[in-house]
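Morning F.,

Quick status update on the modeling queue. The single chain you submitted on Monday has been processed. Sequence for confirmation:
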Amino acid sequence: MALTEIIPDGRSLPVPSYPPDPLMFSFFIPCYNEERNVASVIEKLVRVCTTQNVSFEILVFDDCSRDRTVDVVRACQGAHPGVPVRLFVNATNQGVAR
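Structure tokens below.
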């Protein structure tokens, strides 16, 4: 499997083919070496969605970053345990077009 979801405790899970519950919004954040930016994007989405009281999920897709992007996302997951921030990691870089 080329794409895996990494949950906050570090375990890998198979990627489901459908969302578990109906959602109002799904935010897709593609990342490649975004350790400087990804936390602020996640924080802004959490703030806006909780203020507006909408159901949402944040899907972060890391395309085999060489920096600490995955660690930063995991820290965000730990800081917001009740928020559905899901991290998916490509085993190899897939590039923008794939």
